Amino acid sequence: MSHTLTIDRIACTAHGLCAELLPEHIRLDEWGYPVIRPDPIPGHLLGHARRAVAACPVLALRVARAPRARTG
Amino acid sequence: MSTLLSNPLWFATRACGTVALILLTLSVVIGITSAARYAPGRMGRFEIAAAHRNTSSLALVFLIVHILTAIADTYVPLGWISIVIPFASPYRTLWVGLGTVAFDLLLAVTLTSMVRLRLGLRRWKAVHYLAYAAWPVAIFHAAGTGTDTRLEPQLVLYVLCVGSVTAACWWRLHTAGPGHLAARVLAGLVAGALPVLLSVFLTSGPLAPGWSHRAAGPGPAGPPLAAVGALLSGGFR
Amino acid sequence: MNVPTGASQSARGPRSYADSMRTAPEATAQHREPARPHGPRLLAGWYESGRPAGLREHLDRYGSAPITGLTTDHRRSRLIHAVEQSGLTGRGGAAFPTARKLRAVSDGRGGAVVVANGMESEPASSKDRTLLALAPHLVLDGIVLAALAVGADQAHLCLPRTRPHLVDALREAAEERWNRRVDPIAIDVHGLPHHYVSSEETSLIGWLNGESAKPASVPPRPFERGVGKRPTLVDNVETLAHLALIARYGPAWFRSQGAPDAPGTTLVTLSGALADPGVFEVDLGTPLRDVIALGTLTQPAQAVLLGGFFGSWLTAEEAWALGYSAPGINAAGGGIGAGVIAVLPQGACGLVETARVLEYLAAQSAGQCGPCRFGLPAVARDLADLAHSRIDQDQARRLQERIGLLAGRGACKHPDGASRLAASALRVFAQDAQYHLHRGPCPAARSHAPVLPVPRPATIGEGDWR
Questions:
Q1: What total of structural domains would you count in chain B?
Q2: Which residues contact A56 (CB under 8 A, 6 or more apart)?
Q3: Distance between CA atoms of residues C211 and C226, nearest Å
């Protein structure tokens, strides 16, 4: 069972906590908005990913269970 | 010292109440300023968010001990239902009731924050804004029924707490501009009203002679509130 | 009823259609037969009579839509099956299999809603408004048939309110059908704000739900939850018109024209270096050079823009080797999109044209997502700098990176389309880019008249989305 990170791009307002908490998978572009790797989250980072999801001030992130076409 | 040993619960209530108020004030200040996206220097934004959460949790712990020791202390009759039902205590009905209101509001904020991903942003935020009500209610509860209100260090503490939250509000309103000027000015006036109201209350209430007597009963709400209180605490004992 | 100005300028009358076929330039191919004109289907009425078809004429030509008995599950799934057999795909730009959408909506919980998308926000496309003007009742038939097929009790037709004559004409047509009891359900015709992203399906749904005509985040997708939280079918008006004919004549008839992997006919809008630009109906699979020949090339072609402002450039050599069908064009790195085919002549500068389009696309962003709000205008500025030789090697590299960070990072496909166009421009006009970078602007950049129909970019106020 693989997990991917999905994001509501309209809700996201570039707070940047996600990139602080999951730098292996998320980085910020030059305007502070997240660039998310489309591949599944490796197992050892899943806990960190859930922490990033919980930390988002606008609840824009989710961990999705099956691989989705739209990520990143 | 002898008074402490003979009244450990009472001292615990006062101490934990004060600590809870300080921590709550700290959490509110962090919440207000971090919403304005202020991230000082090398501190991570997630650290500031964690600080807000942790001070709130700690405040809640001290608040619960404050409540439990107050109820357990049989010197004043409060009744267990006063924990969640406001204005149900026969002792200082209004002022203790305000404490219950503050606790209820903070409980709502805490519970919704625990399930906020499932609630969705709008509903979670709507409840979270109740924190803006919980904090002043707690301040007035402390000022109205706090044993130590008349002591100078406690007054200094009130000034610092109210001052820091008012300053944080004004700063946030300032950074929220430009634009929406009327709304921001109005909010600024409301924020500035609190210290004024508190000063007026303190000088005419707790700091004036005879407060214990005036606070003992149902307070300005009068007989109806006392009747309700007696009914509730009598019915549930 | 007056002939809409758009139609008289862009659609072909019977004689000039045949004429242009006879004068198809042989220069495009030495050893093939010129493409044969098959019978047009959607525009057949126009070719016969030279005027838009009213209800009477429509019923005389096609009979009434086969709606009797279309209330049982059996009959409904038979219609959906027929659409599936026909291989009809969406004509709005996404080319999604129509039957699959019908099935998904009809399987949804609760009463469904049908929304016909007649917005056509793509400036280089005029096929939808032409179709609506000339054969409105085919579109309205399609709406009703789709509604019955999915079990909908609500039907909407969304049109741009910048075309009030069209909105009024369609409203009257729908009312006439309702009064004459032609339709079992009433079709509500609406005039919406006409911005580029307002024609996206979630924008239509948002507007119908009382909000702004801006794209929304998915999930939930329209077929799950759309208008009034009900399963909603959103289809382009041309797709629905094809559906209206398939319901009458069957999938085998639909497949009798076109190619096995790209069945049927489709409407295209030809523009650029042509003597007879306009809207044509062609068989899918027709060689692209023959399709372009319908518009009569006036000069040698440098490149071709396919799909729309969200599509891709191809070099003339690449384009001339293609058949006009989704599989063929996709394999070449492009897409059919909204049926736009714009020919860039040798003398024009593709980078300047693209920069102009990107500036427009950036101004048309709904501004909801950071990458589109900041990244897209930055790409537009960089591309303009490249087109006018104000850029150095480092900035050119940064432009490539920025283009790469647009796709998939917005709630809708607006940044994806812009990124696709910009990337294809840098590929197709790579030599020009090198010239601009090292030698200065080309003569074309300085003086050639604009080829693509880019509207003047204007800022959209918050209130203009409702």
A1: 1
A2: A15, A17, A18
A3: 12
Q: What is the DSSP string of C430-456?
A: HHHHHHHHHT---HHHHHPPP-S-PPP
The helix or strand, by DSSP H or E, that contains position C76, with its residue range, turns out to be helix C73-86
pTM of the model: 0.88
Whether A20 sits inside 8 A of B46 (CB atoms) is yes
pLDDT band of B37, cuts 50, 70, 90: low
- A35 neighbourhood in chain C, CB within 8 Å: 405, 409
State residue C251's pLDDT score. 95
Closest residue of chain A to B120, computed from CA coordinates: A59
Tell me which residue range forms the domain holding B50: 2-236
Q: Residues B70, B78: contact at Cβ < 8 Å?
A: yes
Residue C34 clears pLDDT 90, i.e. is over it? no
Each residue's pLDDT tens digit, B148-170: 778 888 889 999 999 999 999 99
Q: Is the CB of residue A59 less than 8 Å away from at least one CB of chain B?
A: yes
How far apart CA B143 and CA B29 sit, in angstroms, is 20
B2-to-B6, B8, B235, C47 alpha-carbon distances in Å: 6, 10, 37, 108
Cβ <8 Å between C370 and A70 = no
Q: For C44-254, which CATH class?
A: alpha beta
Residue C20 to residues C28, C281, C292: CA-CA distances in angstroms?
Answer: 15, 13, 11
Break chain C into its structural domains and give their ranges.
44-254, 350-450
Across the beta sheet with C265-272, what order do the strands follow?
Answer: C278-283, C265-272, C340-345, C301-307, C312-315
Chosen from B30, B46, B112 to mutate, greatest number of chain A CBs within 10 A? B46
Q: Does C371 touch chain A (CB under 8 A)?
A: yes
Domains defined along chain A, listed by start: 4-64 (3.30.70.20)
* pLDDT, average across residues C333-339: 94
| Residue C158 to residue C148: CA distance in whole angstroms | 19
**Of chain A residues 53-72, which have a CB less than 8 A from chain C?**
70-72
CA C266 vs. chain centroid, Å, equals 10
Helix (H, G, I), strand (E, B) or coil at C339: coil
Q: Are C192 and C204 in contact (CB under 8 A)?
A: yes
**What CATH number belongs to C350-450?**
1.20.1440.230
Q: Give the model's pLDDT for residue B93.
A: 86
CB within 8 Å: A11 and B117? no
Q: Phi, psi at residue B52, to the nearest 5°? A: -60, -50
Residue-wise pLDDT tens digits, C187-235: 999 999 999 999 999 999 999 999 999 999 988 999 999 999 999 999 9
